[in-house]
Amino acid sequence: MKRVRIAMIGYRFMGRVHAHAYRTVHHFFPDCPEPELALLVGRDEAALKQAAQQLGFKRWTTDWRAAVQDPQIDAVDISSTGNNHCEVALAAAAAKKHVICEKPLANTLPEAREMVLAVERAGITNMTAFNYRRVPAVSFAKRMIEEGRLGRIYHFRARYLQDWILDPQFPLVWRLQADQAGSGPHGDLNAHLIDLSRYLVGEIESVCGMKETFIHERPTVDGKARAKVSVEDAALFLARFQGGALGSFEATRFAAGRKNHLTWEINGEKGSLEFDLERLNELRFYSEEDRGTERGFRRIYVTEGQHPYVAAWWPPGHILGYEHTFTHEVLDFLRAVRDGKPVAPDFRDGLRCQAVLDAVLRSTSTGGWEHPEA
Ligand code: SOE
Asked: Does residue 310 share a domain with residue 237?
C-alpha cells in the first residue's frame, strides 16, 4: 500500500496538528505509506473551505456520512468534538475504513464499548490518539522501565495543569458543555495521564476521586446571554495499580500560570524517573545503583539517534516539539494500516482509559473507592 487516502473530521486545533503530521511524516519516514489529505469534513461551509485550502486537502464536504463511505477514502481521522466520535467510528467500521480517533475515545463508557466492538468486528486498524506516548523521552522511559532500571514500581504521580478558563468572562465553548465534551479536564487531561500510567506502570485496580466546578455560569459564545457550565473545572483522584503501586492524578484548568503543564514522576525500588512536557527533550533519572557519593537526579538529553524516533529528524541536541509527537503517532498508524497489524494505543486502550475515567466519576458521587469496568 503506497498511499493512504485520509478523510479527516474536524479542522480546528487537533485537525490542524494532525494535518501537519500527515504532511510531514513521509518526508522524514520515507518507508511510511504516503498519506493523501483527500477529504476534509466540517459543519461551517465557509470556514471548512478555507481550512481545506490552508491545510492542503483536495476536497471538502459537510456530509460526514458520505465522506466515511467514499470509495476513494482508506482511513478516517476523527479530530472533532467528543459527542460525535462514536457515530463516526461506527460508520467507519461499517464501511471497513481504518480509523484513528482523538482522545478521549468517547464521551461515555457505553459509547467506548460500542466502538471497540465495531472496529474489532470489522477487523480494521484502529488507534486512540494519545500522542504523549510518542514523545521520544516517554517512549525511552518505557524502555528503561522494561529493562528494570527502576525495579518494582511504588509510585506514579502526575498532574496536567492549564489556566485558559481562569477568567470568569471566558465564554462557554464546547469543552465546557457536557453534551459536547462529555466532561471537563477530567476527560480532556486526566485521560492523557491515565493512558501514560497504563503505558508506563500498568492497569489501575481501584480509584477514589473528587471534582469541582469553580465558576458555574459563563457568557455564551455569541455574548448575548449567560449559561450554565455543565462540566467540572478540576478533577483529582488517587489510584491503586494492579501491581501494588500507588497513583495520584490531578487535572485542572485553574492553575494560574500553567499553560500546558504535564508532569509525571515514577518512583521504584532502584530509582526514579521524572518527565516535564515543558522540557520534553529531557528525562530526569535517579539511580540507587550510582555510587553513593555521586547519587542525584541527572538529566538524560533524549536527542541521540539511538533514542526512539529521533534518528529521522536532527543531529543530537537539535530538539523536537509538541508537533513531532503527532508525526510519530500517524507514522505508526499508517505503518499498521499498511501491514495489517495492531497499533497501540488502540480503541481497547481507549476503552480501558474510559473505564478509569468513569470509575472516578462514580467515585465522586459515592464518595468511596470504585473499580474500572471496561
Ligand atoms: C486542550 O486541553 C488540549 O488541546 C487537549 O485537548 C490536548 O489533548 C492537549 O494535547 C493540549 O490541550
From this structure: yes
Is residue 372 in a domain? no
Mutation to probe ligand 1, out of 105, 170, 189 (largest number of atoms < 8 A from CB): 189
- Collapse the DSSP code of 109 into the 3-class scheme (helix H, G, I; strand E, B; otherwise coil) and give the result: helix
Provide the pLDDT for residue 1: 73
Does ligand 1 come within 6 angstroms of the Cβ of 13? yes
Predicted local confidence at residue 184, as pLDDT: 98
Boundary of a domain, candidates 83, 109, 132:
132
* 345 neighbors 126 (Cβ within 8 angstroms): no
**Is residue 30 exposed (0-12), middle (13-18) or buried (19+ Cβ within 10 Å)?**
exposed
269 C-alpha to center of ligand 1: Å? 33
**Domain presence at residue 326:** no
pLDDT of amino acid 53: 97
pTM of structure: 0.98
CATH number for position 291: 3.30.360.10
Residue nearest to atom 12 of ligand 1 (CA): 260
Which of 132, 159, 185 is at the close of a domain? 132
Predicted pLDDT of residue 2 = 84
Centre of ligand 1 from the C-alpha of residue 130, in Å? 10
Cell of 156: 506514579
Same domain, 156 and 113: no
| 374 domain-assigned | no
Domain containing 232: what range?
136-279+281-320+353-366
Residue 260 CB less than 6 A away from ligand 1: yes
242 in contact with ligand 1, CB cutoff 6 A: no
The CATH number that applies at residue 53 is 3.40.50.720
Question: Within 13 Å and on the Cβ side, how many CA atoms surround 99?
Answer: 35
Residue ranges with strand state E in the chain: 3-9, 34-41, 59-61, 75-78, 98-102, 126-129, 153-161, 204-212, 217-219, 226-228, 234-241, 246-252, 261-268, 271-276, 282-287, 298-301
Cα–Cα distance for residue pair 261/276, rounded to 1 Å? 7
Which residues of the chain carry a pLDDT beneath 70?
none
* 178 in the same domain as 94: no
